[in-house]
Amino acid sequence: MSKILGIDLGTTFSAMAVVESGEAKIVENKEGARTTPSIVAITKSGERVVGVLAKRQAVTNPHNTIFSVKRLIGRKFSDPEVQRDKKLLPYEIRESADGGVDVKMSDKWLNPAEISAMILQKLKTDAEAKLGQTITDAIITCPAYFDDSQRKATKIAGEIAGFNVKRVINEPTAAALAYGLNKKKDEKIVVYDFGGGTFDISILDIGSDTVEVKATGGDTHLGGDDFDQRIMDWIVKEFKKDNGVDLSKDNLALQRIKESAEKAKIELSSSLETEINLPFITSDQSGPKHLLYKIKRAQFEEMIQDYLDKSIELVKKTMKEAGLEPKDINEVVLVGGQTRMPKIQEDVKKFFGKEPNKEVNPDEVVAIGAAVQGGILQGEVRDVLLLDVTPLSLGIETLGGVNTVLIQKNTTVPTAKTQTFSTAADSQTSVEVHVLQGERPMAEGNKSLGRFILDGIPPSPRGLPQIEVSFDIDANGILSVSAKDKATGKSQSIKIEGSTGLSKEEVAKMKKEAELHAEEDKKKQSIIEAKNMADSLVYTSEKTIKEAGDKIPPEIKKTVEEKIEALKKAKESDNIEDIRAKTQELSEAIQKAGAELYKQQPNQPSGGEDKPKDNEEPKAEEGEYKEK
Amino acid sequence: MEEDIKKNDNNEFENLKKQLEEAAAKRDEYLCGWKRERADFINYKKEEIKKIGQLIKYANEELILKILPILDNFYLAEKHVPEGKEFTDGFLQIKKQFENFLAKEGIEPIEVMGKKFDPNLMEAAEEASGATDSANSAESGTVVEEIQRGYTLRGKLIRPARIKVAK
Lengths: 628, 167
Fold this sequence. Notes:
The complex is a heterodimer.
Chain A: E1 4-9, E2 13-20, E3 23-26, E4 36-37, E5 39-42, E6 48-50, H1 52-57, E7 65-67, H2 80-88, E8 93-95, E9 101-105, E10 108-110, H3 112-131, E11 137-142, H4 148-160, E12 164-170, H5 171-178, E13 187-194, E14 199-206, E15 211-219, H6 224-243, H7 251-267, E16 273-284, E17 287-296, H8 297-322, E18 331-335, H9 342-352, H10 365-378, E19 394-398, E20 402-407, E21 415-421, E22 431-437, E23 447-454, E24 467-473, E25 479-485, E26 491-496, H11 504-516, H12 518-548, H13 554-572, H14 576-600
Parallel strand pairs in A: 1-11, 11-12, 13-18
Antiparallel strand pairs in A: 1-2, 2-3, 2-4, 5-6, 5-7, 8-9, 9-10, 13-14, 14-15, 16-17, 19-20, 19-22, 21-24, 22-23, 24-25, 25-26
Chain B: H1 2-78, H2 86-104, E1 107-109, E2 122-128, H3 133-137, E3 143-148, E4 151-153, E5 156-159, E6 161-166
Parallel strand pairs in B: 2-6
Antiparallel strand pairs in B: 1-4, 3-6, 4-5
Helix pairs in contact in B: 1-2
C-alpha cells in the first residue's frame, strides 16, 4: 500500500512527513533539508526552480520569483488582504476573469493554485526519490480561517501536482493530532502558532469523533521575521551612534547584519547572552570598521515585548469570541519556530495557567500531524502490537546495600538480562538474591519485590564463585529471577507477578522520590563504593602479608599492617575523604611490599591470584553479594 | 444407544476439528505477526546502519558550518592588511593553515569568478549595476564578485557561495 504524504504547505516554508512503522516522521527534500522554502521562480534561462534554489536567485530575478503565494490563493482580487499584499509584493498580480487573482511569472499569467502546485510537485518528486516509491495520496494542511474557496484552491493545487488529495485539514488540527490530542474527548485546545511571517491562534473543540474550530484569530503580518528586524534596527542604530556610519544604506553590510541578527535571536533562546561579531563591516577614510555588540536575553525581550503583548491580546480576543475563559482550556499546543523563545512560552503559560505542549519540533509539528491523519485514514494496515515498558528499573541488592540495576526503566518487554556476580567473603556458601524495583541507588530506598537464597556453593575464596543472575520479563509483565552457581549448576528462582503493574501514581511517586533524594543517595553510594574498595584492599593486603611471610622486610610489613589497621578504623566512619586517603596510603604501602616480593623472585611468572591489584576499580559487571 | 454414542463421538470429533482449525489459524496469524516484527526489526537495523554511515560522513558538517564564518572574516581582513610586511606574511600563513585543514577534511571552495550564475551552488546577493568596471565588461548573468566563499564537503554542497552577478 502506498504511503499518504502529509504536507504542511506554509506561507514561507513547507514540510512533509509520512507514517513509517506506526510513527510519523519528516521526509527530507532533495537538498537534504527538513523544510522547503515556499518559493517558485522561472530563471532567466527559462528554467523552473523551486525551494531553496528559487530563493538563491531571487535577487537577480525579483519579478519572476514568486513567494508567499499562500496569501493570495483562493482569494478575490478585491479582498482587502490582497490589496494590502499587492503593495508589498515585488511581482505583478492582477484580477482574473472570475474576480480572483492572477500572478505574472515569466510573461505568463498564472493562478496562485498553479504556483502552489509547483511547490507541491517538488515535494512529491523529492518524497518519491527519498522513499523509493510512488506517492499519490496526500493530506494538505491550511489555516483554520481558510474559507471554502481557499480550501478548494488548495485542493486543486494538490491535484495539479498529481496528488490524490485525500483531505485538506486545518493546521491547528494537525498540530493537535501530532500530540495525539484527538484521543481526548470533550476537550478544548488552543493552538498558538507563531511562525516566521504569520501569527495564528485557533481554539479547537475535540468531540467524540470530530474536531470543531470554535474560533480563530491572529495577525497575518506578525512573525519571527519582525523580531529579526528589531535586532537589525538596534544594531544599525548602535553602530551609527558609535561610529557615525549609517549601515542601512550598505546592502552587503545589511545582509551580514540580518544573518547575525537571526543567529543571535536563535542563540538567545538557549543562552542568556550572545555576541554579534562582524569584523570589517565597513570602512571609511580612517580605515576598516568593526562591529561588536553584546546582547542580553532580557534586552532582546524588551525590544519585542510589544509584539508579545499584541499576541496575548489577540489570544484574549479570540478566547472572548469563543466565549471561553483560560480555565476552560485543557491543552495548549505551540507551533512555529518563534515559539522556541522562552519568553513566549512563559507568557503563554502564564495566561493559560498550564504548561503548553512543545515537545514536537514546532517547525515540523503540522506536517507530522498531517501524516498522522494519513495514517488514521489508511487505517493501520495491521494491528499494532502494543508492547509494555517497565516503568521502573529492576535490580538486586549487592554488597553494602547497593541497588545494582539489571533492567533499566523504560525497557520494552519481553526482555531478559543476565549478569554474573560473586561472593563477598571467603568460604561463603550461600547468597541472597534480593530483587528490587526503583530508581534509588541504595537498596533500602526501593521497593522490595521478593528474595530467595541460593545455597550449596562450595567454600572458596571470595570473588571466585561465579553466580549467574538472570532477569526475564515476559509479555505479561511477569518477572522471573533465577540465580545459578556455575560450578555446581545449582539454581534457585522466583516468579514475581505484576512487576509492571504499578499504578501510574505509584510510579510517579517513586520516580519523584528518586529525584528528590538524588543528591543524598549519590553521596551515600560513593561512601559505600569507597568502603567496598577499602574492604577489598584490606582483604588482598592481609592475604599478601600472610602468604608472603618473611619474604617481606619487617619494616615494610609493619607499615602495611599499620596502614591496614588505620584503614579498617577509617572504614567504620562515613568520612569519605578519610577512607579514600587511607586507601591510597595502604595501596602505596602494599605496592612496596609487592615490589619486594618480585625482587626476591625475579624468575617467577607474573600474574597469579594473589598479586595485589592496587587502585583497580571493581569491574562494572562484578558486583558482590553481601555476606549472609 | 449406540447411535447416541456415535453421534456424541461425531460431535466431539467435529468440535476438536474446529478447535484444531482455529488453533492453526491463530498459529499462522501469530507466526506471521512474529515474522513481520522480525522483518521490521531487521529492516530497522539496516536503516540505522545506513543512517549511522551517513551521519559519520557528514557529522562534521554542522561544526564546519560554524567555523566557516571565522574564515570568512579572515578573507575580509586579508583585503585590508598592509602589503609586504612580515606580520602580514604570518597572518596569511594562518589563513593557509586554515585552508589546508579544510582541504584535508574534504571541504573544497567553489570556484565562481567569471562563471555563469548557478543557483545549485551560488546565492545571488546583489546584481552588479554598470557602475563597476568588472560588471561593465562582464556578460549578463555571470559572477563578477565573490562576497562569501561557498564550500562543498565530499561533493555535497554545505554552503552556497554568495556572489554578485552581472546585470
